[in-house]
Amino acid sequence: MQDRFVAAPGCTVPTSELSWRFSTSGGPGGQHANRSSTRATAIFDIEGSPSLDDEQRARLTRRFGAELTVMVDETRSQTRNRELAIERLEAKLATAFLSARARRPSKPSKASKERRLDEKRQQGQRKARRQRPTSDD
């Protein structure tokens, strides 16, 4: 099992900073699922982590809150579920540091403006045809 995981770009955190809870996973598996505590829940205390700098901590806290919890119960092995929990924790933390691309404002094309105006004209004619004819005396 890993002894460190990546929390932020250029920042690795020892797995000793994670809190673990284990419970029975339920579901299919018979007696093994009922008796073995294979579900792994990893809890990363973002606010209390000494490995993060202030900017990283603030960014993660805005995104996830004071702590980040990941629960895995996919396999029958507690060790494998722990490994999967760390992988998912890394993936979640990585998403917090992705920045959205800046939106470049666009203008509608000349053809699209013409189509919109044609549609408006047609709609107006359609509504005009629904009205009662006027008598021209």
Describe this structure in words.
There is one protein chain. With 137 residues, this protein is an alpha+beta fold. 42% of the residues lie in helices and 20% in strands. The chain has four helices and five strands. The protein has helices at 30-35, 54-64, 78-96, 110-130; strands at residues 4-8, 11-14, 18-23, 39-45, 67-72. A three-stranded antiparallel sheet has the order 3-4-5, with helices on one face. Strands 1-2 form a two-stranded antiparallel sheet. A hairpin with a 2-residue loop joins strand 1 and strand 2. The longest helix is centred in the last third of the chain and has 21 residues, at 110-130. The protein is elongated and about 95 Å long. It starts with a strand and ends in a 7-residue tail after the last helix.
Q: Can you summarize this structure?
A:
This protein is of the alpha+beta class and 137 residues long. The chain has helices at 30-35, 54-64, 78-96, 110-130; strands at residues 4-8, 11-14, 18-23, 39-45, 67-72.
Which descriptors apply to this entry?
alpha+beta, 4 helices, 3-stranded antiparallel sheet, two-stranded antiparallel sheet, 137 residues
Strand content: 15-25%
Q: Reading side by side through the largest sheet, how are the strands ordered?
A: 3-4-5
**Spans with pLDDT under 50 lasting ≥5 residues?**
none
Helix content: 40-55%
Query: Pairing-aware structural class of the strands and helices?
Result: alpha+beta
Question: N- to C-terminal separation?
Answer: 95 Å
Total helical segments: 4
Rounded mean pLDDT is 88
The rounded Rg comes to 29 Å
- Count every beta strand, where a strand is a DSSP E run of 2 or more residues: 5
Most strands sheet = 3 strands, antiparallel
Global outline: elongated
Write down the oligomeric state: single chain
Series of H and E elements: EEEHEHEHH
